[in-house]
Amino acid sequence: MDFLGISLPSYSLETVFGSAISGVFLGAIYALVALGLTLIYGVLHIINFAHGTLLMLAMYAVFFLWSVFGVDPYLAMLIVVPGGYLFGYALQRSVIGRTSHGRDEIILLTTLGVSIVLENFALFAFSANERNVQVPYDFDGIDLGVVYIVWPQIAALVGSLLITAALWCFMRFTDTGKAIRAVAKERQGARLMGINVEHIFAVSFGIGTACVAAAASLLAPTYAVFPQVGYLFVLIAFTVVVLGGMGSFVGALVGGLVIGVTEQIGRLYLGESLGLITISAIFILILLFRPTGLFGQRL
Amino acid sequence: MLEIVEVKAGYGHAKVLHGVSLKVGEGELVALLGSNGAGKSTLNNNISGIYKPFAGSIRFDGAEIAGVRSEEIVDRGLIQVPEGRRVFPNMSVRENLELGSYRRATPNRARNIDRVVEIFPRLKERFDQYAGTLSGGEQQMLAIGRGLMAEPRLLILDEPSLGLSPLLVEEMFALIQKLRAEGLAIFLVEQNVVQSLEVADRAYVMENGLITVEGPAQDLMHDEELRRSYLGM
Ligand SMILES: Nc1ncnc2c1ncn2[C@@H]1O[C@H](COP(=O)(O)OP(=O)(O)OP(=O)(O)O)[C@@H](O)[C@H]1O
Ligand SMILES: [Mg+2]
Question: Is the Cβ–Cβ distance between A87 and A102 less than 8 Å?
Fold first, then answer.
């Protein structure tokens, strides 16, 4: 095969299909990280630069729960998800909200500052070494013929789908979810209905952080933890958010899957490092034809 | 019920209200008239806790509410239907109404939704439509319906007839009279002078952040001087 003058290796359909499937599992995690980012963007209208750093911290939490207390990384979700929510809530309410004085450009810089502080804290406290959670079942799985899928991949996909669905229901059917959607589009109207806008901002930030905490649990069995690990995922999550449509949940899910599959197939043909180019290529293509992303604007 | 004394308010260094005093009694319909930029909405938003007055006192049922958080003011039953409707455009009519009882009268939600669609049958037809896709008149009905969901004790209506066709304006004033007849106290901010004075018990005229005329609506209606100078009739 030949692509832009570069001759590509040719693979059997099975191999390509196999890559696509493992891309779906990877994409599910991207979707989950993007979900938190898109929620925070949709409600507070800011890009949360600390998102990747929060993912990193959550991964350390999962790692230490496992290494110190022997807690299984999936079981750790019961601790890190509520913990992430509380941490995110407190961070928004006490630092980000307070320093910003309601000005979006300041919030942006504050999240950047928070991420720098937290990352250096991690570097100082945990060192730059990579650490791995080992679970006895991380190479068990099922053979689909074209591809061998390990349980952690399945858990990532199922977990992401369940969390996305749960969050969608929460936003549709609970008063707090509705208040979040109201604040996203009409803050003053929301205030006049007795909605505490500052509280809702913090709740949204808390839920966004809980999403990365869940992602951290799902990632732990397959990915190493180190202080910069967040960037890897959050850069891709930014792409997913723009691709799916800023503020759209379904967009985050579909965008995550599209990017995951694209990345895996790109790696297959172009190799480990060059493969990531395909993400940017797909990104530019979709934005050329759909500037508002796949799923426009709606929260 | 609502007692405002010498309220000074504005935005940062821009002073808008220079000492406004007015009252709304139990079950009363009081109109506030005034030209564009007089400061009427500024007053409403200071009453509702969106902004904090620089000085003066706002009492509701005898309790000081100047500078109190907006959700506590909603708790007390002082509900504002704001100028420009401010419905939630990304949510259905049903969800907009539900959020009207986010803070107050939440247990009576189902019953009050029935009551609101009885008042505004048109909302029933649009129940699952996004509020952002409603016509201006329908959005105004929704905004009032959403306000009623909280079972207000005092309802502030900020220019409810703005942008409505003459027929809908008539309907709007009929509705305001009906709500009043049911015993609801209403503070009506309007530029529609004649119709407002016809339905109101008392009225105030605001000019450049000051109350310049006040009295029973009937008197204002027949005050030749006022008709010429302030109301442009
Ligand atoms: N958010 C704001 N920031 C700064 N100035 C404001 C703000 N809102 C209103 N103003 C100013 O306050 C003054 C009074 O405005 P306000 O909206 O209270 O008038 P109004 O009587 O409600 O007028 P209208 O009948 O046009 O609604 C105006 O000069 C306006 O420019
Ligand atoms: Mg106004």
Answer: no
- Given CB atoms, is B54 within the 8 Å cutoff of chain A? no
CATH code: domain of residue B112: 3.40.50.300
Q: State the first-to-last Cα distance of chain B, in angstroms, to the nearest integer.
A: 32
Q: Which residues of B touch A198 (CB under 8 A)?
A: none
Q: Is B53 in the pocket of ligand 1 (CB under 6 A)?
A: no
Residues in B 184-223 with any Cβ partner in A closer than 8 A: none
The per-residue pLDDT for B223 is 79
**Residue A288 — pLDDT band, cuts 50, 70, 90?**
confident
Taking the C-alpha atoms of residue A250 and residue A299, their distance in angstroms, rounded to an integer, is: 10
Q: Could you tell me the residue range of the domain that residue B221 belongs to?
A: 24-52+67-231
- Residue B216 in any domain: the answer is yes
For ligand 1, whether the C-beta of B37 sits within 6 Å is yes
Buried b / exposed e over B15-34, threshold 16 CB at 10 Å, is ebbeebebebeebbbbbbbb
Question: Smallest CA–CA separation between A188 and chain B, in Å?
Answer: 7
Residue B18: inside a domain: no
What CATH number does the domain located at A11-127+142-289 have? 1.10.3470
Q: Which of B116, B110, B111, B163 is nearest to B135 (CA)?
A: B163
Note whether B99 contacts A196, CB cutoff 8 Å.
Answer: no
Select the highest-mean-pLDDT range: A222-226, A256-260, B109-113.
B109-113
Query: Each residue of A183-236: pLDDT tens digit?
Result: 999 999 999 999 999 999 999 999 999 999 999 999 998 889 999 998 888 888
Q: How far apart are CA B6 and CA B57, in angstroms?
A: 7
Mutate to test the interface with A, among B83, B99, B158 (most CBs of A within 10 A): B99
Segments making up each domain of chain A, as ranges: 11-127+142-289
Residue A178 with chain B: CB contacts under 8 Å? 91, 95, 98-99, 102
B170 or B222, higher pLDDT: B170
CA distance A250 to A238: 15
Among candidates A276, A264, A271, which has minimal Cα distance to A15? A264
State the Cα–Cα distance between residues A22 and A264, nearest whole angstrom: 7
Among residues A298, A99, A83, which one has the least CA distance to residue A212? Answer: A83
- β-pairing, B210-216 vs B202-207, is antiparallel
Query: What are phi and psi for residue A55, nearest 5 degrees?
Result: -60, -45
Count the domains in chain B. 1
Predicted pLDDT at A144: 77
Q: Is residue B5 part of a domain?
A: no
- Name beta bridge partners: B154: B78, B185
For helices A249-270 and A277-289, angle between their N-to-C axes, nearest 10 degrees:
140
B79 to chain A: closest CA residue: A192
Instruction: Give nearest CA residue, ligand 1 atom 4.
Output: B11
The per-residue pLDDT for A1 is 55
